[in-house]
Amino acid sequence: MKDIYDNAKVLMKGYCRVCKECNGNACAGEVPGMGGLGTASSFKANVDALAGIRFNMRLVHDVVEPDTRVTLLGKKMSMPVLAAPIGGVSFNMGGKISEEDYINAVIFGCRQKKIMGCTGDGVPDFIHETGLNTIKKAKGHGIPFFKPWEDEELFAKLKKAADCNADIMGMDIDAAGLITLKKMGRPVSPKTIQKLASIIGKTKAKFILKGIMTVDDARAAVEAGAHAIVVSNHGGRVLDFTPGAAAVLSKISAAVKGRIAILADGGVRSGADVLKLLALGADAVMIGRPFCVAAVGGLQEGVELYIDKIRTELEQAMVLTGVQKADNVPETILYGFE
Predict the structure, then answer these.
(1) DSSP secondary structure of 69-98
(2) How far apart are CA 49 and CA 44, in angstroms?
(3) Do strands 116-119 and 143-146 pair parallel, antiparallel, or not at all (unpaired)?
C-alpha cells in the first residue's frame, strides 16, 4: 500500500496530496479536485464525527473468526463496503490515468473481492458512458449513480443503465445544488416525493437515494418507494457547514430501520470506521476518496489491496468488540451507547 500511495501522490499532484491523514485540511476549497467545498467544514465534520466515536473494548467472549458477509439489496457481499460513485478523473484526480482505467480498476477490483463498486455521473458525458460500459463488461456487477437531472436526460440515462444489465441504480440527490451544471445547460434540481415516486415507479431496478441527511428526507424516501438511502453530505463537496454523516445516522436509523436499506458514507478511513457506522444503524458503508487514491495509485491491484486492508481492520475491530456478524452489530459496542 505504501508504494501505491507514493505513486498516487505523484500522479495526483495538484489535485490530491495523499495526506497521511485525509481530513480535508490541506485541500479546503479545492473543488474541482478532491477537497471540500468552501471552508471544507462539511468534509472535516465527516471525519470529526467518526473520530469522536469510541469503542467499548470487550475481550471476554468467543468471537475468534468474525463473519463480515452481508446481503444488501439481494446482493451477497463479502463485507458491507461499497466503493462510492466518483468520476471525473481528468478534473478531480489529475488525469494521469484515463477515466476508463480508473472505472475498470474500481468495478473489477470490487467484483474480484466480492463487494460492489459504484460509478458516477456528470459533464462531459464520457463520465457516465464509461461507467455504464464498464458495468456492462462486468455483466451488471456495479451500481451506476446519476445526478437529479430534468426528466428527458434522467430517463435517458436510467434506460442506458438498464441496458447495461444494472439491476440496482441510484441518484445522488445531494447534487441538486450544482449551479455550474445549470450554467452549462444541464440543470439539476431537488425532487418532490411525488416526482421521486414517479421516477422510481418507472425503474425496474432497485433504487438508491444518496444524500439523505435528515429524518424527514429519510421518511420521504421510504414514502417515494426507494429501496435504499445513503446518509451522506456528498463528501462535503456541495454545501458548507453541514454536520457529519455519522452525527445524524443514529436518528435516521431509528426512524426508518427495517423499512429501507440504510447506507452511509463520509470520512470513512478504516475498517474500524466501517464498524462504527454499522453500530449506528447502517447496513453497509460507502468509501470514496481512499478508493480513488488506491485506483489511481495501483489500478485494480491497488483497489484489491485496499479492500484487503479494510477487511483486515474490520475483522480486528469486530474481534476486539465481540461482534460475531457484520449484519448484526449492536449499538452497545460504542462508548456512551451501552
Answers:
(1) -EEETTEEESSSEEE-----HHHHS-SSS-
(2) 8
(3) parallel
User: CA 2 to CA 121: how far, in whole Å?
Assistant: 30
> What is the spatial distance between Cα 199 and Cα 226, in angstroms, rounded to a whole number?
10
**Which grid cell sits at 154?**
434522467
Burial 286-311 (b: 16+ CB within 10 A, else e): bbbbbbbbbbbbbbbebbbbbbeebb
Tracing cell 474490520 back to the chain, one arrives at: 314
| C-alpha to C-alpha distance for 266 and 289, rounded to whole angstroms | 9
Task: Give pLDDT, residue 331.
Answer: 97
Strands 228-231 and 116-119: unpaired
Q: Which residues of the chain have pLDDT under 50?
A: none
Angle subtended at Cα 146 by Cα 140 and Cα 149, rounded to the nearest 5 degrees: 145
Calpha distance 147→317 (Å, rounded): 35
* Structural domains for the chain: 70-333 (3.20.20.70)
* DSSP-derived secondary structure for 279-302: HTT-SEEEE-HHHHHHHHHHHHHH
Radius of gyration of the chain measured on its C-alpha atoms: 19
Predicted local confidence at residue 177, as pLDDT: 81
Cis peptide bond upstream of 124, omega within 30? yes
